[in-house]
Amino acid sequence: MTRPGMREYVLLLLLALMWGSSFTFIKISVHAYSPLVVACGRLSFAALVLWCFALIRKSDMPKGKRAWASTFLVALIGNAIPFFLISYGETRVDAGLAAILMSTVPLTTVVLAHFFTDDEKLSLGKVIGVVLGTIGVIVLVGPETLSGLGGEFLFQLAILVAAVGYAISSLVARNLRDQPRIGSTAVILTFAALMLMPFTLILDQPWNMAWDFQGALAIMYLGMFPTGIAMFLILQLIAVAGASFLVFNNYLVPAVGVLISFIVLGEVPQPNALVALAIILGGIAASQMRFGRKSGPVKGDGAKSDPMASVMEVPESNENGEKAVDPHRV
């Protein structure tokens, strides 16, 4: 790994812009089409884009029953269900608020990793981070939602469940670290699109919906950039700068999401949303700290110091020069 330069920082900012803008474009899409159509359309377009790249790069496909089973689970838990839930949530929840709710993904991953992995146990910093993240969510949605009295509680809950789905899929994706990145991601997106397609065609019958150019363009953008091309930025950043550098995106995405929703949609964040954002970001920072431990040599680029390292770290390149797949937040 090399020290990140200006190029890597620009790529990191572009990745944050793509992921942060996705909440605004989902909001635009669900004004015109149903959540199922938005999620299925986004995944279908992204799958086409990834298959084009896979053919150009002559990417291999996943190998082994375990890898194929993992791609199916990641498609279901980390793509099909969360994409629908986020779209459903944003029918009532502001795009900026959705971005902040989704910023809890790293902290959710920390908790799940403690119970389902052998090498990612909770530390003092991670516990502090989870506590701060929980406080941030309570501040964000309002204490009254804990009793189910919030008018938008179910829609906020849908987005939080999507965040849990992302976190679970991150752990499942550990089984894909030795698989071709592009081919595996193309398979994941295809599985996810096929999962939603029957429900979309039977329940919503999109051919009966009024055509909306802005909504259709937003869905194409979601498939092309935040879901498709963003994967290549992840590949480049991990290969050059390492997983620890990429984790900085966890701080940028919610802030960018709030900013873009303000610029494009005119959504003015409430004071409690800004306070919650600060608390959650503080929790993410705390979860990466090591309290009471002396710094020592670390393997590779130091990715083990962050809670997402187990998901993002990659082995050596395969014969096609690809890295292992990281379909988290595809």
- Gyration radius from CA atoms, angstroms: 19 Å
Q: Which stretches are low in confidence, meaning pLDDT under 50 for 5 or more residues running?
A: 295-321, 323-328
Q: Give the integer mean of the pLDDT values.
A: 81
- The outline comes out as globular
Helix content: 55-70%
How many strands, what sense, and barrel or not for the largest sheet? none
Q: How many H/I helical runs?
A: 13
The fraction of residues assigned to DSSP E strands is under 5%
Number of domains: 1
Structural class: mainly alpha
- Please report the distance between the alpha carbons of the first and last residues: 23 Å
Q: Please give the oligomerization state of what you see.
A: single chain
Overall strand count: 0
SSE order, one letter for each helix or strand: HHHHHHHHHHHHH
